[in-house]
Design a protein that fits this description.
single chain, mainly alpha, 2 strands, two-stranded antiparallel sheet, Arp2/3 complex 21 kDa subunit ARPC3, 193 residues
């Protein structure tokens, strides 16, 4: 028998109320991926070699992960990352770079679900999720975009500053929106039942 939390993490169907709950989770996940994608098209600032500050496009995925947990959050992030990779402006030069900058980086947003059992866990969850996304982009930058670093500059530092610039701004906007939404949303919304 599969553990209930493992089944939820991988959206395995079960009978009765659990199947209804899973259906609700899948539908809500699809809506949050669509909302994140729409918000990602509202670009406030675009970096010269990729990356942008958007209208809080990570917030729907962070809230989804906070509500449903890490497994469903990771799956929603993977879906969103795959969509981002096929939208205009995506830059793919190698299969590993594609994985690091798109599906894996956005799947990290699902880690916001680690703090779902705490009242204010959405905030540290968001910070952790964006930090892990930053790690993916920094590694990708060091391995695949080192040639953009100024001559003599440490590539790790360059990649961290470059990616941290847009992700730091994106995190700041997301935290402000999360504060506003978290206080306005009915607490029953944040419960998966």
């Amino acid at each position: 028998m599969i553990d209930a939390s493992l089944g939820d993490a991988f959206l395995l169907p079960r009978k009765g109320a659990n199947m209804q709950r899973n259906t609700k989770m899948v539908v809500e996940g699809g809506l949050m991926v669509a909302l994140s994608t729409a918000l990602s098209l509202l670009v406030l600032f675009k970096m010269p070699q990729g990356g942008s500050v958007t209208a809080a496009s990570m917030v729907p995925l962070i809230l989804f992960a906070y509500k449903w947990g890490v497994g469903p959050g990771i799956l929603a992030g993977l879906a969103h990352g795959a969509i981002q990779a096929i939208l205009p402006g995506a830059y793919v030069m190698h299969p590993v770079q594609f994985l690091l900058d798109y599906p894996v980086a956005f799947a990290c947003l699902g880690m916001a679900g680690l703090f779902r059992q705490t009242a204010w866990g959405v905030y540290p969850g968001a910070v952790l999720a964006v930090f892990l996304r930053l790690v993916c982009h920094v590694v990708s930058g060091v391995v695949f975009f080192a040639s953009y670093a100024p001559v003599g500059q440490n590539v790790w530092l360059y990649s961290t500053v470059y990616n941290g610039t847009f992700l730091g701004a994106e995190l700041g906007i997301s935290l402000v929106v999360l504060v506003l939404l978290y206080s306005a949303l009915p607490k029953k919304y944040l419960s998966p039942a």
